[in-house]
Amino acid sequence: MAKETAHSPVAGDLRAPITPAGHTMLGLLTGVLPQVRSGAGDNDRDSTFPVEVFEQFAKLGLMGATVPAELGGLGVDRLYDVAVALMRLAEADASTALALHVQLSRGLTLTYEWRHGTPPVRALAERLLRAMATGEAAVCGGLKDAPGVVTELTADGAGGWLLNGRKILVSMAPIGTHFFVHAQRRAADGTVLLAVPVVHRDTPGLSVAEHWDGLGMRASGTLDVSFHDCPVAADDVLERGPAGTRRDAVLAGQTVSSITMLGIYAGVAQAARDIAVEMCARRRSEPPAGVRTLVAGIDTRLYTLRAAAGTALINADTLSADLSGDLDERGRGMMTPFQYAKMTVNQLAPAIVDDCLSLAGGQAYAGQHPLARLYRDVRAGGFMQPYGYVDGVEYLSGQALGADRDNDYMSVRALRSRTPA
Fold first, then answer.
1. Looking at 108-117, 198-207, 240-249, which range is the least confident one?
2. Are 193 and 258 in contact (CB under 8 A)?
3. Residue 216 belongs to what H/E stretch?
4. Which of 12, 27, 125, 397 could serve as 114's disulfide partner, Cβ 3.0–4.6 Å?
């Protein structure tokens, strides 16, 4: 657990939740942290997903933390509160935090569908949300296609669909019961349409890989999921419209689904800081100037990192609740501060962990040292969409320079996959 450096939490610093539901979630989660922490090293070494931990999450209602209370969940609806919980969990194990993020973010996005979708979408969302609240449903997302693969829906001739393709980097997959699969389909006129079929794990033709040898986040259950003529009912497909049509309104949903991950990498940086500072404090001699300089720099960057993330989260919470204005402007207003904060976190968190390795010395260069695990885990933040570093630079510079471009990375990917090499 992070060492408190102030007597009371400050708004925006990710020290404490801001709603009663957020406090309830964090209180329940805190009781599981010793179990998470004790298994983190072995799970990382063996790339083992902590199934027992997630069974405990389900018993406590944490798998339904972001499900509305009226559907049986804890009713956590603030992105800020979710990020606080993920930060605390990541201090014990970032892999577990990444996997839980998948479930919590899906609860938030499905709640929007339940409140604002068409009747079939609302029915699908309610069914899943109620199952999440009871711990019966673990809902994964499949975004990234395997190299050279286009995950695609084709008509089955009877009013439904067949899904074919392969997704990589699907976290929480070992226990996933439902998969939200970002796919494409062709309209009669050749237009590429975006769609998200929801596929149950028991669907014929769906297979989940058994092992993933990642650089970091090795216990997050991040696996490949393949689809071969998987039948999908028409009512289990969320239509997302044509690719290539600029709709910045979608940036709001992408922000909601991803911004709470900032808490994970803040938690990794905090955990590294606490380990390194404790090691320095145990030394009998007065710390030399170089050590004191590193410690001061680490705490300064950690404060900056948390402040940037906390402010972006508060901004996203404020705008996500307001559907009264220009929805494209709302989408940009949520995504742009998110990307400022993401750039900041992805630059400062690895630098903090690196300096903590310097403070610890050569003993931290052993593969199973906690700092070695944190050093590998923290690098994952730069690969998370939206956006990876290159696309993030394109987005932020485009906003500054008034570029007329499609900011929906799923739309851009879809069209790119259809372009001959």
1. 240-249
2. no
3. none
4. 125
Mean pLDDT across 326-335: 98
Cα–Cα separations (whole angstroms), residue 41 to 93, 292, 303, 367, 406: 9, 29, 27, 10, 42
Q: How far apart are CA 212 and CA 193, in angstroms?
A: 31
Are 351 and 301 spatial neighbours (Cβ–Cβ below 8 Å)?
A: yes
pTM, 2 dp: 0.95
What integer pLDDT is reported at residue 367 of this predicted model? 86
Cβ neighbours of 320 (radius 10 Å): 20
> What is the number of residues in the chain?
421
Closest-CA residue to 224 (of 236, 212, 242, 238): 212
- CA distance linking residue 302 with residue 270, whole number of Å: 7
CA separation for the pair 92, 38 (Å, rounded): 8
Query: pLDDT at residue 157 above 50?
Result: yes
β-pairing verdict for 192-200 and 183-186: antiparallel
